[in-house]
Amino acid sequence: MFDSFFILFYKFENSNSVIIVRVDNIGDFILWLPSAVKLCSYYPIERKPILVCNSSCADLAVSIDYFSRVIGIDLKKFSLNLWYRWHTLREISNLGPSTIIHPSYSRVFSIGDSIIRVSCADERIGSVGDLSNISTVRRAVSNRWYTRLVPASSSNLMELERNTEFTQKLGIVDSHTSIPKIPKLRKLPPSKQIHQNSFVIFPGASTSFKSWPIEAFAKVAVKIIEKYQWKPVILGGVHEISLGRQLEEKLIEYSPINLINNTTLTELIEIIRLARILVSNDTSAIHIAAGVNTQSVCILGGGHYGRFLPYPDSIEGIKPAIVINKMDCFGCNWHCKFSNDTSLPYPCISEIEVDRVFETIENIIQD
């Protein structure tokens, strides 16, 4: 209703600009980078695309310099604060795009689709998408806001392959699936330089039920320290502060460096670049590690198995190693039939053994 009011009373002036809308979280954004390069190079320099993205990705998006301009959106405020939503939509609409592209496969009605709607661009391109984040009825409604919907295979493609599929069907014929490559973004300040023989633990996850127990992370860290004499570094964001303190306490005799909630995104990326190995849940850190050629081990659950991890065998480069507890229910979209307690890790994660994770780490280091 609010967006309809905006369209009714706001005047639009068209220019020849191109806008790309990619409002996913950091990990998804990084997986999209190889396709972003192709999409940006598809347009002449005078139409170098403008990016509308999640504000959590804006620092990275500016640093990689693919786009003529970056507009970061605070998604929570965009959804809940009408004044913020109005100003954001006005900023985008004032650009008067002639073309706007929303390449996300799992569209969100009230965010990406709504931005497409109010842009009033002559050419509004999106993916036919799936139903992960949208109902059948809402997708039918928002489909009408696009002038072109790019078809998508019903096969269970890994996200890198899904992004390539979009650019290929858009008409960019030289697209191919590859691991993201994140260029060096900045020099780290002295306080955040890490020892050359350091490893990173990233103990958080987007939700508690996807998080391996902190005790297990601590045990793996101790094994790494005692065998290789490497320095532990703990990374994460504001939501991992408590986990970081718990892990720091368990490793206190080894003097861990706890940088949780004490780095920008670009600093975090450069720290991971310097690490010998990263151990993490299924988080953006795993995809960052791949993008900076750092070995990594991911404790992976089955909710979205195959979509974001593992990486396809067919692509070259340093890919994350995964450790799983294979169950028949993999692909459940995190609707766990064994547990209703979302404050604890689901069985596909909690039952992954410390020794299996450490064995995977040893194999990587030996190679």
Brief synopsis:
With 367 residues, the protein is of the alpha/beta class. The chain has helices at residues 2-9, 26-41, 55-64, 75-80, 82-93, 109-119, 136-143, 159-170, 214-228, 241-250, 265-274, 284-291, 347-350, 354-366, and strands spanning 18-22, 50-54, 69-73, 99-102, 123-127, 148-150, 198-202, 231-234, 257-258, 277-281, 295-299, 321-323. It is built from 14 helices and twelve strands.
Strand content: 5-15%
Strands across the major sheet, in which order?
3-2-1-4-5-6
Instruction: Write down the overall geometry.
Output: globular
**H-E string:** HEHEHEHHEHEHEHEHEHEHEHEEHH
Question: Mind telling me the CATH class of the largest domain?
Answer: Alpha Beta
Radius of gyration, Cα only, in angstroms?
Answer: 21 Å
Give the rounded overall mean pLDDT: 94
CATH topology of the largest domain: Rossmann fold
Low-confidence stretches: none
> Helical element count?
14
Largest sheet: 6 strands, parallel
Rounded to the nearest angstrom, the distance between the terminal CA atoms is 58 Å
Description:
The protein has a six-stranded parallel sheet with strand order 3-2-1-4-5-6, with helices on both faces. A six-stranded parallel sheet has the order 9-8-7-10-11-12, sandwiched between helices. The termini are far apart. It has helices at residues 2-9, 26-41, 55-64, 75-80, 82-93, 109-119, 136-143, 159-170, 214-228, 241-250, 265-274, 284-291, 347-350, 354-366; strands spanning 18-22, 50-54, 69-73, 99-102, 123-127, 148-150, 198-202, 231-234, 257-258, 277-281, 295-299, 321-323. The chain is of the alpha/beta class and 367 residues long. It has two domains: 9-170, 3-Layer(aba) Sandwich (Rossmann fold), CATH 3.40.50; 196-366, 3-Layer(aba) Sandwich (Rossmann fold), CATH 3.40.50.
